[in-house]
Amino acid sequence: MTEASETTAPSKWTPGMPSPNPAGRPRGIIDKRQKLQAAFADDAVAIAKVVTAKALEGDMQAANIALARIAPPIRAQAERVQFELSDDAPMSEQARQILIAVSEGKLDADTARILIGCIQSVAGIRAVEDLESRIITLEAKTIT
Q1: Torsion sign across C-alpha atoms 108, 110, 113, 114
Q2: What's the confidence (pLDDT) of residue 98?
Q3: Please, are residues 127 and 115 in contact by the beta-carbon 8 Å criterion?
Q4: Mind listing the pLDDT tens digit of every residue in the chain (144 residues)?
Q5: Which residues of 40-70 are buried (b: 16+ CB within 10 A; e: fewer)?
Q6: CB 115 within 8 A of CB 87
Q7: Shortest CA distance to 70 belongs to which of 55, 85, 89, 90?
Q8: 3-state SS of the chain: helix, strand, coil percent to 5?
Q9: How many CB atoms are closer than 10 A to CB 111?
Q10: What is the largest CA-CA distance in the chain?
């Protein structure tokens, strides 16, 4: 058994050890993506000037490209809302309170979906904590 363990290679490569892929890419070789990035970096200013000139001439695609870089699209943001949520109630009751707030127009559906997702996350965390404490209790019982 000792012979087999001596001939097997370690599971993780470390600097200084032989390459696990000696036929792999040689050092210093620049891949296609790096070549393209270098080519565009050299001409970036000229490209930007061409796109800007085309946009000023009325080319809508060029204008779209330029505007996307200058002023990216605005992300939708939910309005701030205030409604009562009983923090001492069970989570299923809190979810019901959120649905009632949606039905009464106090809360929009997207915000409700986010809030219910948050409740689900907290429920998952509580479940893991509960299982952890149960395992600790069971292990304590088996040791004694």
Answers
A1: negative
A2: 93
A3: no
A4: 444 445 555 568 888 888 788 888 777 788 888 888 888 888 888 888 999 999 999 999 989 888 888 887 777 776 777 777 888 889 999 999 999 999 998 888 888 999 999 999 999 999 999 999 999 999 888 876
A5: eeeeeeeeeeebeebbeeeeeebbebbeeee
A6: no
A7: 55
A8: 65, 0, 35
A9: 16
A10: 84
Range 124-127, long-range pairs (CB < 8 A, 24+ positions): none
- CA-nearest of 33, 64, 62, 68 to 49 is 62
Question: The whole model's pTM is what?
Answer: 0.46
